[in-house]
Specification:
With 171 residues, the chain is of the alpha+beta class. Helix content is 44%, strand content 29%. The protein contains four helices and five strands; from the N terminus they run αββαβββαα. A hairpin with a 4-residue loop joins β1 and β2. α1 crosses α2 and α2 packs across α3. The longest helix is centred in the C-terminal third of the chain and has 32 residues. The chain is elongated and about 70 Å long. The termini are far apart.
Length: 171
């Protein structure tokens, strides 16, 4: 069972503190600008700074452990090869007073021609896990998730087309 009934009031201290964190993080400024798609967004730095301030104020430690799920080369729309990484992050939120712990999880993907695909994926996974756990407005991340899904879908189509062309050439 993914949840457990809280019959002996465990994790009540951290729950109260997380409610305070959620209240303090109700709004995050949108300092990022996507000039191509013409919209503003809250950067990972904006989100993490706001959440970190609230966590430390409430004496909650945050420990993130990333895990590389997939790393593959893809062909972008211009025909260039790039790396696509998908990362799962487990974030432990630990109450500094009681030692109670809550774990949250996130998955993110990142694509880059150089060495930054894994870092982009880690950033996305961490940002979305924190946003969802802190109940930050989903409007803030909806466009970024849609854009990421569009990129992944397009890359998979290009890969399929390349495989089809390879099969045709082999015949």
């Amino acid at each position: 069972m993914p949840w457990k009934e809280n019959t002996n009031m465990e994790n009540t201290n951290i729950a109260k503190k997380l409610l305070a964190v959620m209240a303090e993080c109700a709004y995050v400024a949108k300092n990022g600008l996507n000039s191509f798609h013409k919209y503003k967004y809250a950067t990972a730095e904006d989100v993490l700074q706001k959440v970190n301030e609230a966590l430390t104020k409430n004496k909650i430690a945050c420990v993130a452990v990333p895990e590389l799920i997939e790393f593959t080369d893809v062909t972008n729309l211009k025909g260039n090869t790039e790396h696509l990484a998908t990362v799962r992050v487990e974030i432990s939120l630990i109450d500094g007073d009681s030692g109670e712990e809550v774990k949250i999880y996130g998955i993110g993907s990142g694509q880059d021609a150089g060495d930054k695909a894994v870092m982009k994926a880690q950033t996305a996974a961490t940002k979305y896990a924190i946003c969802l756990a802190s109940a930050l407005p989903l409007v803030m991340i909806r466009k970024q998730i849609a854009r990421l899904m569009k990129i992944i879908t397009l890359n998979r189509r290009v890969q399929q087309q390349n495989k089809s062309l390879l099969l045709i050439k082999q015949r």
